[in-house]
Design brief:
The chain is of the alpha+beta class. The protein folds into 3 domains: 326 residues, 2-Layer Sandwich (Beta-Lactamase); 82 residues, Helix Hairpins (Orthogonal Bundle); 149 residues, Heat Shock Protein 90, CATH 3.30.565.10. The protein contains 21 helices and 28 strands. The longest helix is centred in the last third of the chain and has 66 residues. 37% of the residues are buried.
Length: 767
Amino acid sequence: MTEDPRPAPAPSRAPPADRTGLDRASSAPGAQRKGEVDRLLTTCDTEPIRIPGTIQPHGFLVGIDSQTWLVDWVSENLQAHIDVNAQDALGMSAADLLGRVSPDLLAQLKNVVLPEDLAMLQPLPVGGRCYNVTAFRSRNELVVEFELRDDLTSSLDTLYPQLRATVERIQSADDFAQLFEIVGAQVGAWTGFDRVLVYRFDKQWNGTVVAEQSNGTFASLLDLRFPASDIPAQARELYRTNRIRMIPDANYEPVPLLARRASAGALDLSQSVLRSVSPVHLQYMRNMGTPASMSFSILRDGQLWGLVSCHHSSPRRVPTHVRAACDFIVQVLGIQLAAKDRNLDAADRVARQNLHARLLGNMAQEQHFVDGLLRYPEPFMAIADAAGAAVVINGECGTVGQTPTMDEITDLVNWLADTHPNDEVFASDSLINEIPDAQGMAERASGVLAISISQIHRSYVLWFRPEQIQTVTWGGDPTKRDTDGSGRLSPRTSFEAWKETVRNQSAEWTTPQIETIEALRHSIIGIVMRNAEELADLSGELKRSNAELEAFSYSISHDLRAPFRHIVGYAELLREMPELQNEEQATRYITTIIESAHIAGELVDGLLGYSQTGRMTLSKRKVDMDALLNDTLKVLEPDLKDRKIEWEIGELGRAYGDPGMLRRVLQNLLSNAIKYTRTREVAVIKVAREVTDSEVIYSVSDNGVGFDMQYVGKLFGVFQRLHRMEEFEGTGIGLANVKRIAQRHGGRAWTQAELNRGATFYFSLPR
């Protein structure tokens, strides 16, 4: 809202900088007449402050059609200045009207190429008085303003020595506080105002008084903060485009503007020096005992940074050349602010780039880049001035320093991935404003800076800052609104200090911090991509090698089957020869040959089957797993002879896969269960099915000899055995086949076991 609606000041408090020296809003044409101050202000954020329809009385205005050079607009007080009736002036030739002011004025106006803002002309004497003349364009209108000038001798030239010295002091200032002191003191000296304030906006457009020069007439407002609602967006934009605003006397009577055509609409006075201001703001000034005010906008890189606001205890009009000098040093202040900020940012960036380089070196030394971060917590946290940090890769989380819990970090990562899926960098100094449920993390993570390092997985690097509790002193309760008893908002009359404790807020993430973290993100992604390329190359080599090995193993195993059959056959013939029937030693040797050839043949058959599993084309279709299990048990009936087995078989339902390969999986797992429960008086074998969101899991459990889980990594390898062949026969290829078949179907295979307490083997298929 344009006028401050908060309580009135006690006698010991003076109005804040932005209350008496800053323009909140102005009214629609004709609305500034006496008696309309109490109009409803709920729409003041959209109040037409650029087209008030009136001007202040210390001058007069003429609006000229820039094509016809006829007078379209005049202020109602025209006759008081040049003895021409205002109504009669409308429609006159500009040459006729302005010729009464000065014969050269029209020529000056025609020779001026007007920019977007204001153009100043030479001072002119009119009827024994002197006027400063300014001009600006408002659509098709050339608007000329004549402002009364009291000091007829002084000029900007007389201020030049002081102006030059002030600029030199500004340039040599050591810090921001000294800058503000120099500018405030010089503006106060030149203007003679009782109080000069430097007022700075934050990112939320709240304002804080950061410097003050005063002769003691008013109470201090230094360090007080005022809410953004005091100066709405449209008023801030007007401060940006028109840097100077002066109200010499808060008790002035607004002078209406008269138009030649009723359909002319409103005259835009955005660049006007005489523009009238809101009647509420004028009442505001009167309430606070500050009859005169003036403000200068501080622009940093073309954007509104703050204001230099001046207050006086009696009416006061500052000459144009003094205003120009003040405006000049205020703009030099804005340039110097930008330069100092850039210098500080540059130094900060250099320091952070050094930390970035250290982290790159650490990541390059480690096998995995994550270790290059987590093993060096000091630079990892210092690069963002954080109290804690975390790396989350595919659901696995590593932390350093003060961080939320693992579950909280996981929830935060999921929230980032769901609500900011396309953001490479996320920064918040008040996470609770983003996630209301984040209250529990405030102590360790009120602020979060995060970078996404994968477009596929939910992988992030995060930095955390704890809550930084602050006490802010406001110039009045920012949540309170005054009314006049009828529900209408009225000018605020109190500015008593009102303290607020700010919680759930961390220190703000600065631009150099965020930009350095962005650079680190690119470095991490570069490392990940390089590793991915290396892995891709290695994977290609492995695929070629595996293909060659499979072809070789298939060829060898296929070709060896016939020789082993021949060995067994001829050994059987040898054993049947009469001359060897009574040779016990020869018979033992031949029997050993036959048994070894049988074992070798089984190994060759297993290897051939393993090779075929990798080479065969899958023929997937719907498979009745219950029927497949029954068929498999019939095949295994010879192994069940003289065995006491309790079967616990659940409903297996239907699966989608290659029936031949799935049969081989069941046969291998059931055969192992039967084999490794041989030492049990009663074997218990269970077959079950479990369905999850993503897969169907089949399991075969037994109460057999089991194994030590520290050797589980060997179990699914080719020719890997955890028991001696003398105890349990087998080739060591069956489980390798199970794993390969599960993987070829897009599933997986794994196991859980305990020595002498049985084992459970699982394989899964995608849903």
